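tool=predict chain=A
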Amino acid sequence: MKKIFSLLIVLCLTTVNGVLMAQNFALHFDGANDKIGVLDNAVLNPTEALTIEVWMNADVWAGSIWGACLLSKQGTGPDKGFGLTVGENGRVEFTHSVDQSWVAVNTPQILGLNTWYHIAGVYDGSSMKLYVNGILQSQVDVSGTFTPGTGVVMNFGDNPTWSGRRFTGTMDEIRIWNVARTDAEIQQNMTVELTGSEAGLVGYWNMNEGAGTTIADISGNGNTGTLLNMDATAWVGGFTPPGNDVGVLGIAAPSVIGSGFTNEEVIKIDVKNFSTQEVTGFDVSYQINDGEMVTETFQDVLPPFTSAIYIFSTPVDLSGQNEVAITGSVHLEGDGSPENDAITETISQTNNFMLFDHEQHNYGSSGQVHTKFLYMPDDLTGYSQILLHADLECPAGGCDPWDQPALLNILKDGYANEIVRYITPFGVACGGWV
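tool=predict ok
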């Protein structure tokens, strides 16, 4: 089963859409070599409209937004087919080929780890839409002819053409339609098992086998999925419907940037609503070293998928301390994901902060994005300039043999400000840049 009601105890033999509430399984992908293969089939290559849906729960994020495939039927020579990917600290991307070129729609960094999300990508011939938990997140207009992935196998958990874009986490309830599902249709059925006979449904894998090396296509179209490199431990419990989920992103103040703590440090905690419902009235707490826990109430309304900096009312005296460990936490009644409820950061103020320390970066087709969060001081009047020092060294396997472009952005309030763009020389280290 995939839908949980409070009436389940009383109505334990009730059916939903004709499916008995009896099983709830999913498959976990280890991110190393796990994937599921589905052979090409004409019904999986719609040309007029497309909807793909999946429940996913990520263990870690790939470095790039396209670095981990939930579902991919992408080919090249020419570019054709479609895909649904996640990565880059919680972003989602829906991609398909129009006139033999890739077109994509993506979300900001709104997803959290260790949490179930329903992802849906919709193409209706003139627009592409991307939904998270039934809420429209992004939309782009498109024009041209959809190039179907004819002749390309489909993978769950990897890319059939550019292998290695592997997902680490759990997936359940994968569906493919040859129609553009509406907002209401997505919301109405995303937590409900289908019969498999719904109009427009061309592929449906509910993964309720619980064992074995294949997953059946409940749509009746014979698109059996074969588990590749996956053993019995891959079978795990299935998704649970989304509930409220508030988490902590980081300690926003005191900043790591500075010349030393003062006797009036204001404590600030960066909190985020990871769910589809607005939340308010939850507890926000902090603890410094092994000291007393200080708790206040977040009184404002925090809309879905948004974050806010909570500022505690009373400053604290941290003067004379070189280093402090601050634990920030939240408590919301009925929170469905306690894994992200607390974070501990050790802060030692400095004016020379290391952003990336020997972080290996892949260029070209394997390129990725590295992200580092840095909370700056509120008062920057004591600074005349901020300098970035960059050095590139060759890893053990050697530098990339081609000249490759890269850039660095500062992302603030949703806007990216490019501060560095460079091209690496042929296969040698470089840097010393300021």
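The chain has one helix and 29 strands. The chain has three domains: 6-237, 246-347, 373-433.
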